[in-house]
């Protein structure tokens, strides 16, 4: 059951991009050498900033933590891969929490040391060909096939690799688009800002997690999987879900702050050529579900939490 306050009239939703992550000069040490699958360096891969921005990735660490990333400390790295550390000693980060950079479905959760030296690896499929990799984990807390929310813990920082390959604890992080390795490796974007390659310190705005008792899947119902999401500042996240069984889209806005208090929250879905469907009001935990089928058409979706709003273009056509 959804808890509501007094419902207000609908309002216009304005296009807003998330604010930039906090950046500082590179402060530090990265891991020891860590060979990865053999391939041609991706230095020439273009970065489509608008496309990457649309995925609304956040730093893969809990809200408020500052981590230093480095893409050049290992000669075996492909372009745009990042190693993250934050401690002052080699083992300081061992066991620290790693969270999902965006909502999606776990495609891989396995130890792959003998395959590619990633050790304990979690790969999350975010839909639209986008995926993220979290390697060398000490522990994995999700299984293949599981649906995860942005900010949900998926494992802990570790130094697992292949037998005999000694590395210091760190998180190896990648963003990929498509399947043609290594040209599919993309520049990482956190909270709307491209990572400051080759090194930068970033403060996490990944402020989701389990404090809200509702997930987008619970709001939309059985059979729906997250295919896209957009951060609404620190106030919430709006999710686009799809049910392959009945071809229905669903939008839900999940609050992160002011939980239990009735605050302005909204979710909407617009099928191209049709009227927009909106659920807006003063809600305690979420807005939605808003559902519609769109066979052969594109959809526009978005929402509001607090003062932050998001409007997508027409996309996810099919």
TrEMBL record:
GO function term, MF aspect, one: metalloendopeptidase activity
Pfam (any one): Peptidase_M23
Transmembrane stretches, start-end: none
M23ase beta-sheet core domain residues: 84-178
Signal peptide: 1-23
UniProt keyword list: Signal
The UniProt record lists the keyword Signal: yes
The keyword Acetylation belongs to this UniProt entry's keyword annotation: no
Coiled-coil segments on the chain, per record: none
CDD domains on file: M23_peptidase
The organism's place on the tree of life at top rank: Bacteria
Protein's recorded name: Peptidase family M23
Species: Streptosporangium subroseum
